[in-house]
Amino acid sequence: MNTMAELENTAPVAKAGSNEATAPPRIKFSPEGFAIDHPDPELGDRLMADALGAVDRDAMHGLLRQLARASSKGQKPDANNLAFMISMVRSIRPRDSIEAMLVAQMVSVHVLAMRCAYHLAGAEDIARQDSAARALGRLARTFPAQIDALSRYRTNGEPAVTVQNVSVQDGGKAIVGNVTQHAKVIIAEQPRERAKKHRAKPARARKSARVAAKPEAQA
Q: What distance in Å separates the CA atoms of residue 121 and residue 117, rounded to the nearest whole number?
């Protein structure tokens, strides 16, 4: 498959200015390959790199080639499909190379899943229905797993904890830790004296029961 011309400059691509249009440019296909369709090539590279979360031109071109192949219908890339995939990657906002690769996989899996759903809807025999249904099922299970992987990566593997209400009784102490995205709340144990008092109650209750039962025994 033909690809866009490689650029010799592999330095990081500067982010587009805040006063410039931030929507990613379209991809233009031709018999020679495809290229970013923008009147200003340098600005077009910046906008596309921002959309894909790419750190330099090599990373940007690599992700574009992979997305273009995943967008293909048969052997021909689909410009509308590719534009949709780029838009979805941009909306998720990958923050580094790991996220950029994972998000590219996510949108590719989604496109393939919808393609399988289309084949399933149009299948006219049981064999094709079963094949499309199995493929759709595997892709449908993969997508939420990818979402979970992205969430865990963004939170460094720490489970998010939401504290809605903390009730502390008399004598207790509440120690609230670093309350950001992952709040940690530790409820201190009650003082030892109070714990001893609770442990002593059953012994006193048994003693009182023996004293109450003694007159009956003598009678």
A: 6
Q: Taking Cα atoms as reference points, which of 73, 44, 75, 78 lies closest to residue 60?
A: 44
For 44-81, b/e burial (b = at least 16 CB within 10 A) is bbbbbbbbbbbbbbebbbbbbbebbebbeeeeebbbeb
Check: pTM over 0.85? Answer yes or no: no
The pLDDT > 90 percentage for the chain reads 49
Residue 88 predicted with pLDDT over 50: yes
Supply the pLDDT for residue 207. Answer: 54
Kindly state the tokens that stand for 181: 């995205």
* Beta pairing, strands 185-187 & 174-176: antiparallel
Distance CA 179, CA 176 (A): 7
Residue type, 178: N
